[in-house]
Amino acid sequence: MSIPSPAVHAGSLVTLRITVDGRPVDSTLEILSVVTESPVGANPSAVVRIRDHGTEGFPVSESSVFLPGASLSVSAGYDEQTDSIFSGVIVTHRLVTEATQGCVLEVECRNATVVESITPPATPVLLVTYGEDLYEMSLGFPKPGDVSGTVTFPGSSLAVPNALLELSGINARFDGQHVISAVRHTLQEGTWLTQTTLG
Length: 199
Prior knowledge:
Elements: E1 14-20, E2 23-24, E3 31-39, E4 45-51, H1 59-62, E5 71-78, E6 81-98, E7 102-110, E8 126-129, E9 136-143, E10 146-154, E11 164-168, E12 176-188, E13 191-198
Parallel strand pairs: 8-11
Antiparallel strand pairs: 1-2, 1-5, 3-4, 3-12, 4-7, 5-6, 6-7, 9-10, 10-13, 11-12, 12-13
């Protein structure tokens, strides 16, 4: 069976869904960005940024939705088909003002379960190819065969800690299968990028 490529979703519409305590958030909210991080040996986390300004006060912050202690889940995908990329509890509710974005509500979340290091499965979950779906990379090797660094590609929920990712089209030093030690998903302005840390 062929290894999936992030490029399979080229041209598809990114779909983002957020629920709080099991209920979808108001579809009229302007979600500026969502960033989730899942590193081996630490707790998964997420930051959701929402534009918050009204004719009177700050209605999103003043609502009872994004309060510390509430459970928050994030799903992402393409063309209305989504998979979970984060679930946790809201730990911080912060209101900030910025020169470019105006007033923004930042909701910080954390999952209580530490991502443990386990033996990866034998089959890679993704094939990322230079010149096709590898957008950015920063890779090195402290010793032959021990590659470490980061690669960024179109968003994919298949990228998870402890899984294998296969690189292709770079050169003999970096091509091959590598263990994912951390995953960062960034969704903003209708785009979704996944950055994996290898090694």
